[in-house]
């Protein structure tokens, strides 16, 4: 009996028809393993994962392999995106036992959940041998196997977390830049060798740091990514990573979190330098998000698959995206086809004579390029599209809200701000609920008080899994950014409720934060990872949101919590700066104040709008903007600050100590640049 048919996770639903007797994560599976006296087989992956699909086709869809799994184990299928806490603790075990990690992740555990053997992808023959070997060891020497699990758990708990560090100061940031320079690739951009992942959080830090060396590393990397195959040159949007060191061949899955983070970084690059390339990539990525990733409910889907079907019906990685010279000529004709082959570097860079499109040089004929790209995109749209994981993840939608709100404001695109607001409404109405024992179901929240989040939703239905630290932090950050763009105090209040829960449910007692709440499910280890991965660490994201809220409210409690959470930056910066990018970026904000700007005036007054835009165009690290009629107690930064001579005004402050108000954008820009 496969129990995945009622899941809200598209990944679990992909396995609902397997001959494996899958259980979802939960007490039923653990009780079954104890009742039968067999180990657990925990398989963790996500819907856009190529090698997860390979192992599914080879093993989980194979009746003989499924029989072995059903007879010898209780098998649990976990969507890592729905249960990042489960993924985190078992990934720590996998890395400790094997020296590496990845997905699919395959873990064998006792009926109590203690891991004793782990790996990632196994080919079918090897997997069948492993099933037999593990089962034999369990039957013949169970005490030793259980002891091994206990030893692994003890070792993981002993080395959990990072030692607390001092609040970072300017020398820590300078050491981080030197450390990043050691692994920087000056020819191809990025850090380290293959595979190369978009270093989104590091790029944000380098832009905020602003020194010549920092900007050179950031600009080289962003230029190379934008021109390489890791960026979709036809439709926009970035792939998960490049399998090579030159950004040529991507791993073709497209993730919401990568594109939200990179949209924001490219927007900030344009704001800092006026780069034409930065503007184009930011707007194309934003348009791709709206076109490809929006759900009917107004949120954003999690991912597009790496795999799709080719013309002959076979499935493979990247088939939707790659081209041959012959295919280009078929669509464009001989002349434009040859021109496009040269322009897009169609020289057999991928498999079977196909190529991933690159754009290493700007086209010499813009009108011709637009015509060619439109024709190719129209032809590509007739291919079988990759699958879409349409669940809405709170954290990643929070990142999208921040990015789209800022891009919409800076590029004068009200539709992007509207999309950000629609996603925020979905998060607030569906994912959020008051933190009250009387009402713990998802639904609309009151104006004030602590708020709880559900991690995911799908088709307008909230999932059962509780939000984790990154959900609270990134949604709060998104709401605060949206408030700064729209002046709607709803989002300021909602962010305060989320941060109240963050401060009461997640602290570790030494200045950091656990990744799961204090009343969450008890795993063999309470997850806590202060380092960045594909997204900002929950701890550093929390620090950023807390700092912004403190700047809008003057709250010492929130500021002190943010600074304490940044102690991990001091531990990581000199040797492991690549894993502390968001913490480094937030530290730049703390050292800069951050700058607070209160813009006071009627929302529909052009003079108010001009002051507001001048404030948002400032590249001051971590700058926060309060927008409203003034004199209101809704947002403390606006309280007591009004019009000047009947005109809209802007107040530039640090720590609520403000300079004389100004009434023109030029005066405001002068104060912000001083």
UniProtKB/TrEMBL annotation:
Domain of life: Bacteria
BP GO terms, sorted: carbohydrate metabolic process
Start-end of Polar residues biased regions: 437-447
InterPro entries reported for this sequence: 6-hairpin_glycosidase_sf, 6hp_glycosidase-like_sf, Ssp411, Ssp411-like_TRX, Thioredoxin-like_sf
Domain Spermatogenesis-associated protein 20-like TRX span(s) in chain numbering: 2-156
Region Disordered, residue ranges: 434-455
Pfam families for this protein: Thioredox_DsbH
Gene3D superfamilies documented for this protein: 1.50.10.10, Glutaredoxin (3.40.30.10)
Full protein name: Thioredoxin domain-containing protein
């Amino acid at each position: 009996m496969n129990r995945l048919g009622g899941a809200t996770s598209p990944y679990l639903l992909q396995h609902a028809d397997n001959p494996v007797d899958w259980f979802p994560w939960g007490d039923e599976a653990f009780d079954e393993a104890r009742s039968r006296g067999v180990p657990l087989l925990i398989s963790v992956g996500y819907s856009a994962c190529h090698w997860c699909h390979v192992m599914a086709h080879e093993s989980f869809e194979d009746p003989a392999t499924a029989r072995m799994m059903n007879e010898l184990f209780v098998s649990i299928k976990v969507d890592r995106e729905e249960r990042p806490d489960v993924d985190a603790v078992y990934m720590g075990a996998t890395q400790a036992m094997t020296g590496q990690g990845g997905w699919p992740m395959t873990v064998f555990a006792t009926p109590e959940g203690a891991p004793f053997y782990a790996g990632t992808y196994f080919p079918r023959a090897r997997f069948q041998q492993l099933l037999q070997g593990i089962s034999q060891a369990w039957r013949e020497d169970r005490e030793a196997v259980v002891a091994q699990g206990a030893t692994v758990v003890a070792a993981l708990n002993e080395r959990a977390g990072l030692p607390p560090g001092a609040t970072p100061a300017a020398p820590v940031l300078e050491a981080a830049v030197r450390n990043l320079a050691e692994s920087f690739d000056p020819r191809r951009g990025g850090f380290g060798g293959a595979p190369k992942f978009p270093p989104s959080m590091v790029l944000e830090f380098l832009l905020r740091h602003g020194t010549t060396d920092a900007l050179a590393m950031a600009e080289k990397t962003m230029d190379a990514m934008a021109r390489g195959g890791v960026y979709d040159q036809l439709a926009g949007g970035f792939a998960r990573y490049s399998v090579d060191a030159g950004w040529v061949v991507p791993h073709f899955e497209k993730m919401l979190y990568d594109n939200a983070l990179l949209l924001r970084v490219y927007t900030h690059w344009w704001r800092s330098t006026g780069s034409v390339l930065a503007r184009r990539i930011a707007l194309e990525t934003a348009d791709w998000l709206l076109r490809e990733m929006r759900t009917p409910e107004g949120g954003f889907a999690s991912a597009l698959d790496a795999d799709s079907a080719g013309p002959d019906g076979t499935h493979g990685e990247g088939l939707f995206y790659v081209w041959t010279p012959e295919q280009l000529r078929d669509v464009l004709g001989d002349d434009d086809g040859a021109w496009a082959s040269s322009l897009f570097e169609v020289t057999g860079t991928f498999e079977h004579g196909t190529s991933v499109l690159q754009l290493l040089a700007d086209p010499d004929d813009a009108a011709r390029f637009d015509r060619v790209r439109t024709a190719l995109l129209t032809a590509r749209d007739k291919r079988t599209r990759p699958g879409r994981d349409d669940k809405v993840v709170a954290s990643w939608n929070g990142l999208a809200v921040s990015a789209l709100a800022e891009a919409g404001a800076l590029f004068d695109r009200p539709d992007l701000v509207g999309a950000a607001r629609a996603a925020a409404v979905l998060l607030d109405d569906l994912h959020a609920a008051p933190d009250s024992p009387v009402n713990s179901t998802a639904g609309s929240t009151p104006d004030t008080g602590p708020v709880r989040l559900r991690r995911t939703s799908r088709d307008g239905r909230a999932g059962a899994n509780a939000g984790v630290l990154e959900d609270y932090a990134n949604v709060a950050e998104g709401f605060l950014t949206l408030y700064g763009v729209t002046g709607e105090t709803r989002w300021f209040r909602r962010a305060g409720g989320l941060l109240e829960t963050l401060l009461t449910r997640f602290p570790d007692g030494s200045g950091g934060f656990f990744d799961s709440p204090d009343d969450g499910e008890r795993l063999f280890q309470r997850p806590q990872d202060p380092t960045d991965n594909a997204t900002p660490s929950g701890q550093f994201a929390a620090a950023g949101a807390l700092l912004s809220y403190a700047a809008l409210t003057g709250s010492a409690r929130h500021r002190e919590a943010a600074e304490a959470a940044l102690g991990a930056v001091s531990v990581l910066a000199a040797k492991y700066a690549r894993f502390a990018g968001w913490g480094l970026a937030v530290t730049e904000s703390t050292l800069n104040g951050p700058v607070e700007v209160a813009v006071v005036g009627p929302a529909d007054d052009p003079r108010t709008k001009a002051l507001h835009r001048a404030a948002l165009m400032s590249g001051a690290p971590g700058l926060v903007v309060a927008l409203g009629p003034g004199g209101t107690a809704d947002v403390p930064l606006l309280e007591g600050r009004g019009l000047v001579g009947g005109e809209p005004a802007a107040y530039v402050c640090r720590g609520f100590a403000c300079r004389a108000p100004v009434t023109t954008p030029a005066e405001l820009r002068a104060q912000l640049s001083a």
